[in-house]
Please model this.
Amino acid sequence: MSGNPTKKQPAAWLHAFFDLLFPRLCVVCGRLLSHAEKFICITCDINMPRTRHHLQKNNAMEKLIGEHVFIQRATAFFYYRKGSNYCNIIHELKYKGRKEIGMAMGRKLANEIQNSGFFDGIDAIVPIPLHRDKIRQRGYNQSEWIAKGIAEVTNIPVNSTVVARKAYGSQTGLSAPKRLENVKNTFDLYQPEQLSGKHILIVDDVLTTGATVAACISTLLPVCDVRISVIVLGISSI
Ligand SMILES: [Zn+2]
Model:
């Protein structure tokens, strides 16, 4: 054993004290978290409706995106079902300023699937960009924080400059064809040579119709010899 065990006591007391002053609640069920639990309690973690798409060839997500553009592989962490408490993860991440949830979920997702070989051969992680007005309003790009978590585990670098969003248009309430029409040509490509010949992993928070991701991929396709895969936290359409 190394270190002095008595030195650990004040830290434990301090944690207990802070937990008392600022109780941390499970983002899914609202239960009080123990010190060992970070943002989701162990029960909600175990019961999270994981897709396990990374274990299935030609999975539902690959089929959905494959309708629009050709990709190497795709996976989602969990099913994002309307009315489910698991939607709170995305809600807190996007609308409550809790960007650290994105990083923690990215880290968790990467840790759980990296042994499957999903990240093998991937050279760069590209988060779906937000328009600068949206970043100014929200303070951060939630997909970039998910990407940071994945990068921390896999050591694959994040590239947040190769694609940019031209204008932000809300997709809420639009039909699938309208969404597709709305997002076409909304991304710009900058210095594509930096990703020539590389395998890029696109990261988004939730995949609904696949239109936004497909539009981003279409923007990246002119990059010479590029291959593209996709990873998201939640998938809502299937
Ligand atoms: Zn919980």
Q: What stands out?
A: The chain has a mean pLDDT of 89. The beta strands are 74-79, 124-127, 163-165, 187-189, 199-207, 227-235. DSSP finds nine helices and six strands in the chain.
